[in-house]
């Protein structure tokens, strides 16, 4: 049976190529290109939060984009191998025997790649009993008969037999993006035989990867010389008795092998495919489907932008997002000086929404260059704040600060900071279209205005003027024409107000409007103030720390060189492999394509397996290098005010957690003493007295107890004993005071693992025990906490039925893959379904706490302020004389942020710096 995603439209005659030339058919060997991508990109660096490896998908997609862009095919298909035996195995049972086992991270990516091809309209084929090369040979034959030029992207040399005047093989070179064009001349130059004789050459020489033995002692040069003399393998066999020497005798002794090799190497050209080669044009593609897939895989926007660009150019607009209108109609007006207030009164009624868009200098809400206001009718103004008449500025600032006039923006946090920098106030914000879209699709990574207009309005972010001409929005902001820039900003304001209406309607349907209005929008203002405040940094201390870590790195290098007896690059995996496994003879680690892995886990294992000091030194070198890099990055981000101003993002994580960037203060290591020392650099600022830190204790587990309603788990929280020790006491049936560190650690891993959807295999890996032992431990756990098991099972069943999970506050995460036919995608979605309600509820609760604490600080007239939120921790800067009040206020409002069946425990610490304020 043929597996294909060919669309109904793919039945028309072959289209001509660019300039009216021959159509161009691109054929891709799917497994060949996917394996190449897999080994070119490190699997450990390409894995999403659900544990799905993505390196093959990312690399394959990148190469496909390059092929589409550079080769400009009019037709395309991807052929795949299958797992079951082929006709070649039936003839020769040892065919391809001895190949190394497929890495476990690879198979799940093939199904996802085939899904991606279906989403972008590329025909994907596999046929039982045949290999991808046979499908390619069949399509090549048919394509040539249709007058096409054929390009074959494959790393299998068997395809060389297909090369001809109108068929070229794109064969892998040294790098991932390097492809060698194997034309008839290139094949003959390399192998001294024409392409049609390559199959004969391979039959004589053999093919190690296919486990096809050749004639002993006969290499490519000898085989080519024989074929040149006799013309073909059949003729050579007929004259085998004439060839003298040991090579001739070996040929005669192995004639059966040679003829068998010839039969197996020859590609089938008559495979029944069920699709017509002329219909393999790039079909309609599904932008939303690709976005959802890439969001689940957690790919950044760069790859999808490249893919969308080449698809838009070659396949046209996707059918999933039909354009209903060619753009937006904007009427830009210029009120006379001193009449802006009249225009606002005439155009904007109290209670009517207005789109607001700003353009500012810099990246963090600097000086405002332009400000545009637009009403749904399409009328808009675009203002330069530096050129405003005093009366107009007064009218504008009064309108912006008036909550009676609802405003909608795209990226309200930056706008707030830019307006505050001018001393202006913004009130009455009713929607942020980026945040609203995030609440609807938290797995999405692209919340650009243009993308959302297409997604929810079916309209391009362009201006449709009276003459029908189009003004495309200058998304890069490179236009110099002032009038064009003004119109573009007015267009953004109008698009924002129209988009907000569509998003609100969808949020209302999905019961998410309260989250927008009561949680995320108010939080944006709190985050803007925190970013403006920043946190003071001790530059001298950081420079001393950087020098110390740099010295530690040099010391580790010197120790390693002395131990080995020569200099080498500690950052080179190839050199480390040679030293560790060849020269020192240490135990072999996990096998990878380039040898044996030398990653951190492998070095830690070696350190435990041997008395050799080198693995320990290498680990120390990596740790100190990472610490030095972290400190160097922090030094670069200290602003002129001596403070570090991180950026908090509300629309990045799928679970609702905030993320931090530039710099990422959530990534500062705290598990080692050296890492914790970095926190000493964050100090109380001038005019303040102390830093106060407050965080929730075991919040995910408390949420688990609340959601599962497990009486035994709830009781453990009320017992007054150490929670993990209390649970261990129940599971292992021993008194609490007899629970040792190992038993507590196992139960702690279990407790948190269940909250994050950990499997028995994952638990086994974490605890260093067998999956069977982990399974027994989990069963024992569930025998005491049965409602936890019931909850975990029920949450997946409910999510599969409803299509989404929800937090305590109703934050939804849609998981369509729960019903996927692809097992890997289904299991990935099940892990997300287990994790999202708990981690998402924890994110919601800390956000509620931030709102309550911020409001209490301001209502009590306190000068103390929040500076940071790091996961479940808040960091505040306390003004002189306010410590006791702030401590009491923070504990009260954090502990009462959400009512649960177990208390929310809050720990507080105080000190002159972040480290000393720990608790």
From TrEMBL:
EC code: 2.7.7.7
Top-level EC class as recorded in UniProt: transferase
Entry annotated with the keyword DNA damage: yes
Record-linked SUPFAM superfamilies: 5' to 3' exonuclease, C-terminal subdomain, DNA/RNA polymerases, PIN domain-like, Ribonuclease H-like
GO molecular function, one term: 3'-5' exonuclease activity
Residue ranges of every copy of the 3'-5' exonuclease domain listed in the record: 330-508
Gene Ontology terms describing biological process: DNA-templated DNA replication; double-strand break repair
Segments of this protein annotated with the region Disordered: 1-23
InterPro entries linked to this entry: 3'-5'_exonuclease_dom, 5-3_exonucl_a-hlix_arch_N, 5-3_exonuclease, 5-3_exonuclease_C_sf, DNA-dir_DNA_pol_A_palm_dom, DNA/RNA_pol_sf, DNA_polI_exonuclease, DNA_polI_H3TH
Keywords, alphabetical: DNA damage, DNA repair, DNA replication, DNA-binding, DNA-directed DNA polymerase, Exonuclease, Hydrolase, Nuclease, Nucleotidyltransferase, Transferase
Stretches assigned to the DNA-directed DNA polymerase family A palm domain: 675-882
Catalytic activity annotation: DNA(n) + a 2'-deoxyribonucleoside 5'-triphosphate = DNA(n+1) + diphosphate
Polar residues bias locations: 1-10
Domain 5'-3' exonuclease: start-end pairs: 21-283
Function per UniProt: In addition to polymerase activity, this DNA polymerase exhibits 3'-5' and 5'-3' exonuclease activity.
Family: Belongs to the DNA polymerase type-A family.
Protein name: DNA polymerase I
Encoding gene per record: polA
């Amino acid at each position: 049976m043929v597996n294909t995603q060919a669309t109904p439209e793919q039945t028309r005659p072959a289209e001509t190529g660019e300039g009216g030339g021959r159509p161009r058919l691109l054929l891709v060997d799917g497994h060949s290109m996917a394996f190449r991508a897999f080994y070119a990109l490190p699997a450990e660096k390409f894995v999403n939060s659900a544990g799905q490896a993505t390196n093959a998908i990312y690399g394959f997609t990148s190469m496909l984009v390059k092929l589409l862009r550079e080769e400009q095919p009019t037709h395309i298909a991807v052929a795949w191998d299958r797992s079951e035996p082929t006709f070649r195995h039936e003839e020769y049972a040892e065919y391809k025997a001895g190949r190394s086992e497929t890495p476990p991270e690879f198979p799940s990516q093939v199904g996802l790649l085939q899904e991606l091809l279906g989403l972008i309209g590329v025909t994907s084929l596999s046929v039982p009993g045949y290999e991808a090369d046979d499908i390619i040979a069949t399509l090549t034959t048919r394509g040539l008969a249709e007058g096409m030029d054929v390009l074959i992207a494959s790393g299998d040399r068997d395809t060389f037999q297909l090369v001809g005047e109108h068929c070229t093989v794109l064969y892998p070179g040294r790098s991932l993006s390097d492809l060698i064009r194997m034309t008839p001349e290139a094949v003959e130059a390399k192998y001294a035989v024409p392409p049609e004789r390559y199959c004969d050459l391979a039959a004589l020489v053999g093919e190690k990867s296919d486990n096809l033995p050749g004639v002993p002692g006969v290499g490519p040069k000898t085989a080519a010389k024989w074929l040149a003399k006799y013309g073909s393998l059949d003729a050579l066999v007929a004259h085998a008795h004439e060839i003298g020497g040991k090579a001739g005798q070996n040929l005669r002794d192995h004639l059966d092998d040679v003829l068998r090799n010839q039969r197996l190497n020859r590609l089938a050209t008559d495979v029944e495919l069920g699709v017509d080669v002329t219909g393999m044009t790039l079909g309609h593609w599904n932008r939303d489907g690709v976005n959802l897939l890439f969001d689940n895989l957690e790919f950044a926007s760069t790859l999808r932008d490249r893919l969308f660009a080449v698809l838009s150019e070659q396949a046209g607009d996707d059918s999933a997002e039909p354009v209903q209108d060619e753009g937006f109609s904007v009427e830009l007006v210029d009120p006379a000086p001193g009449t802006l207030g009249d225009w606002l009164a005439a155009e904007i009624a109290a209670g009517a929404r207005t789109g607001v868009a700003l353009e500012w200098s810099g990246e963090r809400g600097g000086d405002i260059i332009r400000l545009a206001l637009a009403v749904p009718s399409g009328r808009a103004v675009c203002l330069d704040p530096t050129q405003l008449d005093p009366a107009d500025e007064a009218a504008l600032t009064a309108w912006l600060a008036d909550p009676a006039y609802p405003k909608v923006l795209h990226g309200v946090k930056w706008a707030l900071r830019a307006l505050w920098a001018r001393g202006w106030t913004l009130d009455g914000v009713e929607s942020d279209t980026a945040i609203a879209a995030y609440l609807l699709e938290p797995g999405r990574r692209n919340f650009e205005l243009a993308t959302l207009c297409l997604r929810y309005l079916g309209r391009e972010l362009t201006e449709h003027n009276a003459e029908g001409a189009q003004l495309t929005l200058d998304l890069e902001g490179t236009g110099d024409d002032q009038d064009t820039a003004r119109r573009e900003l007015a267009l953004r304001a109008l698009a924002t107000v129209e988009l907000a209406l569509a998003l609100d309607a969808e949020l209302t349907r999905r019961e998410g409007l309260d989250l927008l209005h009561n949680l995320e929008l108010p939080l944006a203002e709190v985050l803007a103030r925190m970013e403006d405040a920043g946190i003071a940094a001790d530059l001298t201390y950081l420079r001393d720390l950087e020098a110390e870590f740099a010295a530690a790195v040099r010391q580790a290098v010197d120790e390693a060189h002395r131990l080995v007896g020569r200099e080498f690059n500690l950052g080179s995996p190839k050199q480390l492999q040679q030293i560790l496994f060849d020269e020192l003879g240490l135990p072999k680690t996990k096998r990878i394509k380039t040898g044996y892995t030398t990653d951190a886990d492998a070095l830690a294992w070696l350190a435990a397996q041997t008395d050799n000091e080198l693995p320990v030194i290498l680990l120390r070198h990596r740790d100190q290098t990472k610490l030095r890099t972290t400190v160097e990055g922090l030094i670069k981000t200290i602003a002129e005010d001596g403070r570090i101003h991180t950026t908090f993002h509300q629309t990045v994580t799928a679970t609702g957690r905030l993320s931090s960037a530039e710099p990422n203060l959530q990534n500062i290591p705290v598990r080692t003493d050296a890492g914790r020392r970095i926190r000493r650099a964050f100090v109380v600022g001038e005019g303040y007295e102390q830093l106060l830190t407050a965080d929730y204790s075991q919040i995910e587990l408390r949420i688990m107890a609340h959601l599962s309603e497990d009486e035994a788990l709830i009781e453990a929280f009320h017992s007054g004993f150490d929670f993990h020790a209390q649970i261990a006491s129940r599971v292992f049936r021993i008194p609490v005071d007899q629970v040792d560190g190992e038993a507590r650690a196992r139960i702690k891993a279990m407790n948190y693992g269940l909250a994050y959807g950990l499997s028995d295999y994952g638990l086994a890996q974490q605890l260093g025990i067998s999956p069977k032992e982990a399974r027994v431990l989990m069963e024992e756990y569930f025998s005491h906490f049965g409602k936890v098991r019931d909850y975990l099972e029920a949450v997946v069943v409910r999510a599969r039925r409803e299509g989404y999970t929800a937090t305590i506050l109703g934050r939804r995460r849609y998981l369509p893959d729960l019903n996927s036919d692809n097992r890997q995608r289904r299991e990935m979605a099940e892990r997300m379904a287990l994790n999202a309600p708990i981690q998402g509820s924890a994110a919601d609760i800390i956000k509620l706490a931030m709102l309550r604490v911020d409001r209490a600080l301001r209502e009590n007239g306190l000068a103390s302020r929040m500076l940071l939120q790091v996961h479940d921790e808040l960091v505040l800067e306390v003004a002189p004389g306010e410590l006791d009040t702030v401590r009491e206020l923070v504990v009260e409002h954090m502990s009462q942020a959400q009512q649960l069946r177990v208390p929310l425990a809050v720990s507080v610490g105080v000190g002159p710096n972040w480290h000393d304020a720990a608790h």
